[in-house]
Every structure is written in C-alpha cells, then in structure tokens.
C-alpha cells in the first residue's frame, strides 16, 4: 500500500486531537467520517475537508474505497465495532481502553487474526516524545538496571479553552453502567500501559487502596512487583479540585520517575504544564543532570501516533500498541481495583473479565 485511505468513526471529544496527524500526513487521505450525530459529522467534514460522511459505522465499513479505520467511539462499543471492522476487511486502530473486559479484548483479537488485518490500540503515550526519549534512555542502559517505576497524577482545576469546549455528552457513558470503572479505568489506563512499556518486564503482583472521589474520580495509591525481584512499581492519583493546573489540555498533571542502579530519569509532564521543568531530565551515574528538550506538546503524541499507524500499514509492520500489550494494561487496571476491593495482592494475569470498585457506577442509566 502506497497511500492509506482512512475512515474515522466517532467524531466526539477526542477526534480533533486524534485526527490532526492523519490530516497532515501526505501518505494518508482521510476519505470519510462516520457519526450517529448527523449535524456534528457534517460540520467536522466541512472543517477538515473530508469528502464523505456516514451516519453509522456499518455504512462506513461498506465503503470499498476505505482501507483502514480509526475507531473513536465510546469504549463500550469498541468490541462490536472492532469485530465488524475486521469482518469488513479493514485495518484497525482503536482508541484506548481497548474494551471493557479482558475477554472482549481476546474476542476482538481472534476476529482480527481470522481476518488477517493490521490491528493496534491508539495509545498516544507510546508516541509522546518525552516518554519515548525516557524509554530509549532506559533501553540504552543510561540508568543501569531499572529498580523502580513511579507514576504520579494530580487531577485539579483545568483552565484551558480545550477543556471548556469539551461536549458534556461525551462524559455520560463514562459515569454509568457502560463503563466498568471511573478515572482509574478511562484515563489511568494510559499510565498502566506506560508502566508495562517503559520497563518491558511482566508484573506479577499488585497491591492498592482505591477511594471514591466526586464524579468518577478515584484517589488511589498502588504498588506492584515485576517478575524480576529487584524491580518495583508504584502509582498514585490525587484529586485537588481547588488547585489550578496550567496547560492547554485537560486539568490533570502527570509525572514519571524511573530509578536505576546507576541513575534516574524524570518525565515531568504529559497533558499539562505544572512543574515548568524540562520535559525529560536524566540524573547520571556521575551525579550530573542532563536535560532533553524534545517536543513536549501533548498534541505531538497524537500526531506521532497517527503517523505510526500509517507507517505500519505502508511498511507492513506492527504499529504500537499491540492488542497483547493493551490486555496487560487492562489487567493491571483491574488488578488495582481487585487488590483494593479484596485487600490482598493480586496477580494481574489471572484476570479474564472485568473488576469494578464496590460503589460503581456512581450514576445509573436513565
Ligand atoms: N488518548 C486519549 O488521550 C483519549 C482521550 C479521550 C478519550 N479517549 C478515548 O476515545 C474514545 C472516545 O472518547 P470521546 O471522549 O471522544 O467520546 P465522545 O462520547 O465524546 O465521542 C464518541 C463519539 O462516537 C459517536 N458514536 C456513538 N455511536 C456511534 C456509532 N455507532 N457509529 C459512529 N459514531 C458513533 C458519538 O456520537 C460521539 O460523537 C474512548 O474510547 C475514550 O476512552 C482517549
């Protein structure tokens, strides 16, 4: 394939970040958009100069002049939409979380394998230049043998136009029975994925305490053991509604720290700009501080993510993130809930379905 003819399904809140990389890539033509909201899909097709619109995913899949689809529909629809796309012979990129249960993910992968199409999960963190740089440094031995992965997230008061312009209906399905969990499922799946990817070693045991916060927020502290005994991981999430989080996107700030026997790396931001530090800092074996000034705008992760899907289709190679990696991230997410629910360590690989916190869902469907 020399050029990818792409259809995009689900033109909601994430579409405008997700699509820019495809629109900018000369190796890709975005030929159609699909959304059940006729007014929205037509408006965005005009704005992005996309020639065709469809009112359903099925109509998009029936278009023979589409090679690949980017699926941006609500997470609870991903299973049906991915299986339908695979059966229609389309290559598939689907937003994280891959699906609501581990068994649904496995069914999706079986359909993909049967159809022989390319499949990847759209995980923008794997294409965020500061995280990519950190991973390269770890792999090159810049910190010796990794011994600890720490990930911190603080959800505060966002002040960006982007956040103010989000469509509230995009949150309804996140807060009710359509989702197995709240913020720890919908957003922290990015962080779980990075925990499995920055240091690519299996996680064998998880302990955690998860609390119920307002709306769908879930303050938590967790730690886990990797297969290698001298490698541990930890994560915390705080909710600080009165604290302003500066930045152009969501009002949440993120921080990664990877410690090794010979050094340490910080990634100081993702979608916000709280710390105002260089995006990647490496403290070396000699005690020196090296800074890396890579592109740290959050939107770069989406650009590079789209490019990676196009690269994979044109070169016939597997783009990140694989379905197997997405399953490991989902198992880690559910292991956190289960460890907290049962007050005991949990092996993520034992989880086949889904796990929710006891108060879930906070809002009932009408
Ligand atoms: N990578 C990230 O940083 C990030 C951020 C936000 C959302 N997401 C993920 O992206 C996905 C979409 O999230 P969102 O916030 O854009 O949700 P949203 O609800 O704002 O958008 C979903 C869109 O899908 C449309 N839709 C529903 N059923 C459809 C169907 N059958 N066919 C075609 N369109 C249909 C809706 O009308 C809506 O426009 C979710 O899986 C979410 O977790 C990822």
Summarize the structure in short.
The protein has helices spanning 15-24, 38-48, 57-61, 78-87, 102-115, 129-139, 161-164, 169-172, 183-186, 188-197, 298-315, 323-342, and strands at residues 4-9, 28-34, 52-54, 68-71, 91-95, 119-122, 146-158, 203-210, 220-226, 232-245, 252-260, 263-267, 280-283, 289-292.
Keywords:
single chain; 366 residues; alpha/beta; Rossmann fold; 8-stranded mixed sheet; 6-stranded parallel sheet; 33% helix
Question: How would you characterize this protein structure?
Answer:
The structure is a single chain. With 366 residues, the chain is α/β, with parallel strands linked by helices. The protein has 2 domains: 4-122, NAD(P)-binding Rossmann-like Domain (Rossmann fold, 3-Layer(aba) Sandwich); 126-301 and 329-350, Dihydrodipicolinate Reductase, domain 2 (2-Layer Sandwich), CATH 3.30.360. The protein contains 12 helices and 14 strands. Strands 8-9-10-7-11-12-13-14 form an 8-stranded mixed β-sheet. Strands 3-2-1-4-5-6 form a 6-stranded parallel β-sheet, with helices on both faces. Helix 4 runs parallel beside helix 5 and helix 10 crosses helix 12 (323-342).
């Amino acid at each position: 394939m020399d050029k990818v003819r792409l259809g995009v399904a689900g033109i909601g809140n994430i579409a405008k970040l997700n699509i820019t990389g495809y629109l900018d890539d000369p190796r890709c033509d975005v030929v159609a958009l699909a959304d059940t909201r006729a007014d929205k899909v037509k408006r965005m097709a005009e704005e992005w100069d996309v020639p065709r619109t469809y009112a359903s995913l099925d109509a998009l899949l029936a278009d023979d002049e589409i090679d690949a689809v980017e699926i941006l529909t609500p997470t609870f629809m991903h299973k049906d939409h991915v299986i339908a796309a695979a059966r229609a012979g389309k290559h598939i990129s689907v937003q994280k979380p891959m699906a609501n249960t581990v068994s649904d993910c496995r069914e999706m992968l079986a359909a993909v394998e049967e159809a022989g199409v390319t499949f990847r999960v759209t995980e923008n963190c794997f294409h965020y230049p500061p995280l990519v740089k950190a991973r390269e440094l770890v792999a090159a031995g810049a910190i010796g043998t990794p011994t600890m992965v720490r990930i911190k997230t603080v959800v505060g008061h966002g002040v960006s136009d982007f956040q103010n312009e989000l469509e509230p209906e995009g949150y309804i399905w996140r807060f009710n029975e359509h989702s197995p969990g709240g913020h720890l499922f919908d957003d922290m799946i990015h962080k779980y994925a990075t925990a499995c990817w920055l240091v690519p070693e299996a996680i064998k045991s998880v302990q955690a305490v998860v609390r119920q916060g307002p709306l769908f927020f879930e303050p938590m502290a967790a730690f886990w053991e990797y297969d290698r005994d001298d490698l541990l991981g930890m994560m915390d999430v705080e909710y600080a509604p009165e604290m302003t989080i500066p930045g152009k996107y969501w009002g949440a700030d993120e921080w990664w720290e990877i410690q090794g026997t010979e050094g340490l790396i910080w990634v100081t931001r993702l979608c916000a700009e709280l710390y105002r530090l260089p995006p990647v800092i490496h403290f070396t074996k000699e005690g020196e501080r090296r800074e890396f000034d890579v592109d740290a705008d959050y939107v770069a992760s989406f650009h590079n993510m789209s490019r990676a899907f196009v690269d994979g289709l044109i070169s016939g190679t597997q783009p990140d993130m694989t379905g197997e990696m997405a399953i490991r991230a989902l198992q880690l997410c559910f292991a956190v809930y289960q460890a907290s629910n049962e007050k005991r360590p949990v092996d993520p690989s034992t989880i086949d379905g889904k796990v929710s916190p006891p108060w879930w869902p906070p809002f009932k469907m009408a």
